[in-house]
Structure prediction request, 418 residues.
Amino acid sequence: MAGRRRRRGAGRAALAFVTAFAALTGAALAGAAPAGAVQKGGRVAPGVTYEEFDIKAAKGVTHAHLLRVDLGNPQVRVDLLYPGAVASRARVSAMANTQGAVAGVNGDFFNITETQHPGVEATGASVGPAIAAGRALKAAVPNGQRYGPALPPGTTTEDVFGVGTDGRARLDRLALAGSVRTAEAQLPLGGLNQYALPVGSVGAFTSEWGSVSRVRATCGTDTDRAAPCSTDTYEVTVRDGKVVSAADTPGSGAIAAGTTVLVGREAGAQQLRKFSTGEPVEVEHSLVAATDGVTYRLALGGYPVLSGGQPLPGLDDTTSAVRTAVGIADGGRCVLLLALDGAAAYRSGLTIAEVAGTMRELGSEDAFSLDGGGSSTLVARKAGASTVSVRNHPSGGAERLVPNGIGVFSGWLRGADR
Prediction:
């Protein structure tokens, strides 16, 4: 988190829930000890294990699926699962198999529907920043434009779970830094491959976006996702550093490599109207971490629920649902990926406060909530298999198409099986 150093534990906490924790959060593992709590489990790959267990929560028993990932193992890494474009969706299992992951879970909340703006195409793009293999794919939408439950106090859409090039996992915040420069002016860049741009801004769309319409980027406001689409928009296409075309409304279609489409709304649109065909334009953008000196290989959005072993204040303790979360243990050398089961018998799920408590008792020092409900999916390879299997039961009865996820990769399996 910005301006705050995190306290890291020296060892891995045991999987044991105590009476005091049950009284505090209303959630406890079934069974008094790890041996009694874990029902199934085993090794997925060196440094990667899978477990199943029940949790007694405030609104009933729920079933959990857990991956433990040892980032200290040189054969193990995690990276972003995504379909190859920001504005696109796929099943977690398909993304994992296509990218060669041995396991994974679903990721960030996303622009799933546009019932509030009839006739506008839903983009399927995620809410928060995204980095894959060290490459920045997108920045965060304004807080008021996000999908998902209310953010805990003090958190924003810029919050991320990430793994740095140092191999350590951490929670951080990624802000967009960028500009649009001409001989006459320099404009701040308000967005990068986002389904929603700040009011009055200019956003950049690159080949990473995909082919989906860019109209949604000009709908809603910074505080009201349902507000009408802007009537003052303009779009400029820059190729090889020069303006090649312009339009009054945002378009659609694939964006070629070396091309940037600038979309402006309100004041941003008025600035773009001053550009002329053939005019040189320089567009720069990067995602800047709040933690100094950290470069990320993987990052994706959601929101923090546990920091330094303590639940964030103000976490919801009334609404139970199927959840997905990621935890960080052992000073960032261990990642825990949790997805609840959506089968009818367990669908009552956990509150966000219970998620924070559960991740703490599983050994996490920091934890981060990801998209839940019908999106919650955990996949892992079974012994001898070359593809992953869905280990939980998605609450919709089948895997939902999602924009991204966290993939677990094993160098040992890539060398032995592929």
